[in-house]
Design a protein that fits this description.
Blueprint: H1 2-6, H2 9-35, H3 39-61, H4 69-92, E1 96-104, H5 105-117, E2 122-128, E3 134-143, H6 147-157, E4 162-168
Antiparallel strand pairs: 1-3, 1-4, 2-3
Helix pairs in contact: 2-3, 2-4
Length: 176
């Protein structure tokens, strides 16, 4: 950390900005791993994140009165780190999700067969909608990475389908 204390001006601002961006991105992903119960990954990311945080805070606090622009670099890195962390997490797509689809009854079985042809487990539940219209509720449990492909397939089959997507913390048994 000693070399950071000797830096001044734009070089220091860029390093603070980049380090804070990386640290917050790592922390964002770590929080997702914590919520998904992946202890080892979250612990390792927490270790790296804490080293970065201590180093960054030290370089910002040291000589802050003479160089308050370090706060701007820190806050900018924090902001971009949040955006980048959320973006990266959406690309990594950690975990499982549940998609519920409501369609007219005759479309329900057709859509279920198409989804099953794509190796997805689908449960069909008969239902009644507004004005006593018969409906089918399709329930699909899948890895989050598959959501865009499955939603596209549903919309291509029935553009009027009602689609609801939820995170799943755990599953037991069944077809995956």
């Amino acid at each position: 950390m000693g070399f950071l204390l000797n830096l001044r001006g734009p070089t220091l601002y860029v390093l603070i900005f980049l380090a804070k961006t990386i640290e917050v991105s790592i922390t964002t992903i770590r929080i997702v791993y914590v919520n998904r119960g992946q202890r080892v990954k979250s612990a390792l990311l927490g270790f790296v994140s804490s080293i970065l945080l201590i180093t960054i805070v030290g370089s910002v606090v040291y000589g802050l009165a003479e160089d308050p622009f370090k706060i701007v670099a820190y806050a900018s890195g924090f902001t971009l780190g949040n955006l980048l962390g959320v973006y990266l997490e959406s690309k990594i797509a950690i975990g499982l999700s549940s998609i519920h689809v409501v369609v007219d009854e005759e479309m329900g079985y057709k859509l279920a067969m198409i989804l099953r042809d794509h190796e997805l487990g689908v449960t069909i539940i008969d239902g009644v909608g507004k004005d006593d219209n018969k409906k089918s509720l399709l329930s699909i449990e899948l890895k989050r990475k598959k959501i865009p492909k499955v939603v596209k397939l549903i919309k291509q089959t029935d553009p009027h389908a009602f689609i609801s997507i939820n995170d799943v913390t755990s599953t037991f048994g069944g077809y995956f």
